[in-house]
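Figure S4 source data
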Amino acid sequence: MSLIKQDDVIASVADALQFISYYHPVDFIEAMHQAWQREASPAAKDAIGQILVNSRMCAEGHRPICQDTGIVTVFVKVGMNVQWEGDMSLTDMINEGVRRAYLQPDNVLRASILADPAGARRNTKDNTPAVIHYEIVPGDKVEFDVAAKGGGSENKSKMAMLNPSDSIVDWVLKTVPQMGAGWCPPGMLGIGIGGTAEKAALMAKEALMEHIDIQELQARGAQNRVEELRLELFEKVNNLGLGAQGLGGLTTVLDVKIKDYPTHAASLPVCMIPNCAATRHTHFVLDGSGAALQTPPDLSHWPQISLEGGAQATRVNLDTITPEQVRQLKPGETVLLSGKMLTGRDAAHKRMVDMLNKGETLPVDLRGRFIYYVGPVDPVRDEVVGPAGPTTSTRMDKFTRQILQQTGLLGMIGKSERGPVAIEAIKEFGAVYLMAVGGAAYLVSKAITGAKVLAFPELGMEAIYEFEVKDMPVTVAVDSNGESVHTTGPAKWQKIIAMNHTQH
């Protein structure tokens, strides 16, 4: 029997969450570096390079890998012989650990959790509550898997109740392209098969806690049907040519993880959850001997990479850019932005559109300006702003036409692809959409030299800021003619991969 102290749970959870905010798991770094070495698509290689450079900077600077430090998900296995010292429930202990981690002054993390999700959507200000899953097991230890699941990848989760005769492989290959690039590939796919609907989803999430080991599996060969499926899906999903950030390339997934469970004779529930390039999770055990603190990985695990993108990049001054200059920007081109931009994401867009519909004047003039879809982390010490990577742009698609038409906005910056509605509006109004790399938030923030809140301060990280930037790297993702690299890039690389296969 062991006695687990309340303070040890709180301290261990808080330490784990701080740790995973700035350290990638080593297996992920190694898999990502291998992908970078293999990658033949210049745009995808540059994106993976940015993710690796950002990862190293975060490990050195102890700042978040991504501005979206996620909703905390915890799997807990409680030994039946454990006793507790303390007056809180285990759920309250875990949530107190979350609170302390997110409010730690040296590395404040972004509070992203909203209460009353179908109504007022009020920020809880400390990222609580966590989503917690418990299992009671033999023994006298308590085991924790702690993850922080970012919205970009989590929001792309897919679920289906297939017929028993349906092909799971076909469903996955049809579904992955539909997820777009908002989950920030390359990453992992977690797949749960069987049980009931919620069991499949739970297994998919659990599968993502496992180490990347597909290379070892390829070397020794499959020993059961699940391993066969993993190998088949790994190859076929990468052959889709989606590539890093959806720009087209050789690596879309670093591993495919599958968990299964017996199911009803008439059922085949399947759930798939992608894990992005900011994959963050860790494991610890409490046995009564005190708090379990994480051991930092050695920095030698991170490769030394220099980014090539800057040499042939077009420089753009946001303070003087004209519609004519926007029309000259070519799809896939690397651009370095300098000058002043505005920020605004879902809540700010909703607020602006409501004001326009009422005939009110907006608090900021958008004419000829660029808006960056971002909700930054608060700054610490001498920072101008905390990690400030882009959010998934498709969520702004429904506002795009009205904003372009009624405000004269010239350009948008965000993450991953735009949908047909937004592309049509970009083409009609001669605007441009630029893409920043998701999963490189700290690297991006280093280009920001000034930041102040201009409007809607009550929205917290969703307020409208004005950023001043110097040489912020972006890619032209949709040009003023409506050509999208997220359509042309994967199509081109799918053909290249297929040709290489037929030659071999």
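Figure S5 source data
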Amino acid sequence: MQRTIRRALISVFHKEGLAPIVERLKAHGVEILSTGGTQRAIEALGAEVTPVESVTQTAEMLGGRVKTLHPMVFGGILARRDFAPDEADVADHGIGPIDLVIVDLYPFEETLASGAEEGDIIEKIDIGGIALIRAAAKNFRDVICIPSRGQYSDLVEALADGVSTDLDFRRRMAGAAFGVSSNYDAAIGTWIREGGQPEVLSLLETTCTSLRYGENPHQQGAFYGDLEGLFAQHNGKALSYNNLLDVDAAVQLMHEFKNGEPTVAILKHNNACGLATRSSLSVAYTDALAGDPVSAFGGVVITNRTLDVATAEALHTLFCEVVIAPDYEPAALALLSGKKNRILLEQHHWPTAKRLVRSALGGHLVQEPDNRMETERDFDCVTTTKLTDAQSVDLAFAVKLVKHTRSNTIVLAKNGQLLASGTGQTSRVDALNQAIDKAGRMGFSLDGAVMASDAFFPFPDCVEIAHQSGISAVVQPGGSIKDNLSVAYCDEHGVAMAMTGVRHFRH
């Protein structure tokens, strides 16, 4: 069902990007209604504008809070074409139909993020704009709604051959409009509540990227969020569902090392299989790869420094799905781009989240992010054998890995290098044995190494096994009613143990 645009209402906060739309409407003789700053911007583009005030016969009032809220405007938007009662009403009241509504809402979230005063924030709660969006979207059978700058290009493409649109396009724009509306209101509601759990869960994402498939080829998948704002992709195929899970795990882990010495991590299936901190990035990569060169195949590599040529030359021989770095030396980028399917991401910033959401039982579990991270200063040494400075540094390194490894987990480390980890085990003893076995297979000696656990030891079995393997220091949250048993074993055998009082458990 085609509809021709004869009359359009444009009222936007940001004026950029209107030129091609205005040009198209002007060329086809479309009457443009507008207000205030938008009117002036459109007139500057050489188009005639009918002021909304001349239609409503009412001036703006309340400092601009009331501009378009009038039957002459909303009647024109909401009137159903080819519906006799509506046609009679608009004829009786002299209301002209409005076929296109373009609105860009006040920047509420940007104003909130800027640290503005409450009064300024309140004035960025759009009333007329959101009402226009809802009205136009409701009447999508007859009216086109363009609810943000993100849809300007869609409109330009749809009007390439004239000023008529089909029902599929109008329905699609209406869907986008209600998405904008719901997210906008949810952001306002979250701010007004000032914390606590919301009565209604709303996911505030307006950008959707379709994926080739989900976790498996028979599952559909999509990503909601701003990938382009987070990364610039320089090479490779489109990111997949599983790629994104691994990229997220890599970015979250490297966030712990963002301000440290040159560090490289290699991840597979959301867990680190290699990680090292060294004086140079190339050495860090070599030592990270030594942690498990087999698992590194097809994995994700991430750095906390500009990826240089020396590191690129070493990395280029590895088959990996994704490489992430804050920047690339031009020659390094050129070299790594030699494999067309290798995804190269330049990370612009560290993502933040106010809450974590996970599907469960047909609903959603919501929690705060785990933003705690312990350092050497947080270690409470509970044994008679005290931690050396080197042990404290290695334990702090290992704790960072524990936080980002699936439970139950044990991490073994030495000299700023991941030797091995036991991940996702149902038994902590199994996790430790897995880590010890893997370290041996990779050719590492555990003499003088340290061990970190994501939860307490209810029995001394783990510290006994660790000691027998050469482990010299242990860190754990503590909190078991039988902590004394593990402490006593360590005291007897000269092993240092620290407790943090903080558990980083990842189911």
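The chain has three domains: 3-193, 228-347, 376-499. Residues 3-193 form a domain with the Rossmann fold fold (CATH 3.40.50.1380).
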